[in-house]
Q: What sequence folds into this?
């Protein structure tokens, strides 16, 4: 399946479960990256997208990511749905007006570590900057209460 706006994909976390994400925008001109939303849902098998009910209230992060995980089937595309994330929450909107200056693009490995920390499988403060993952959340209210810390 080709990568496109509205696609639902699954990222496996350390429990063996999958966390859904949705492609909300693509930049095919400049940085060649995708904007995606991550949802606080876990599924135990690779469901069909029609079985998942994505809701903006469950979205805890919107990120600009490199598409290599989707291109290489590391994150499995399972179908497509209508977008549920309002455009004002897209991660690239402000930077696009400045030609991309200031945009933060996350590698798939960092996104996977973020998800594992979000679900308390890895320490939230695993990187040099202890609050690194805080910047990946939509806002502070989305930060889980049961996080683990290494320090």
A:
């Amino acid at each position: 399946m080709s990568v496109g706006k509205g696609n639902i994909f699954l990222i496996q976390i350390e429990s063996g479960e999958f966390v859904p994400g949705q492609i909300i925008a693509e930049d095919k001109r400049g940085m060649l990256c995708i904007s995606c939303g991550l949802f606080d849902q876990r599924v135990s098998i690779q469901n069909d997208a029609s079985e998942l009910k994505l809701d903006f209230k469950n979205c805890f992060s919107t990120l600009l990511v490199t598409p290599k995980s989707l291109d290489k089937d590391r994150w499995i595309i399972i179908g497509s749905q209508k977008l549920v994330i309002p455009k004002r929450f897209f991660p690239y909107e402000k930077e696009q007006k400045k030609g991309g200056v200031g945009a933060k693009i996350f590698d798939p490995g960092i996104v996977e570590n973020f998800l594992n920390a979000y679900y308390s499988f890895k320490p939230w403060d695993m990187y040099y900057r202890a609050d690194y993952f805080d910047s990946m959340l939509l806002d502070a209210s989305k930060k889980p209460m049961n996080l683990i810390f290494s320090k």
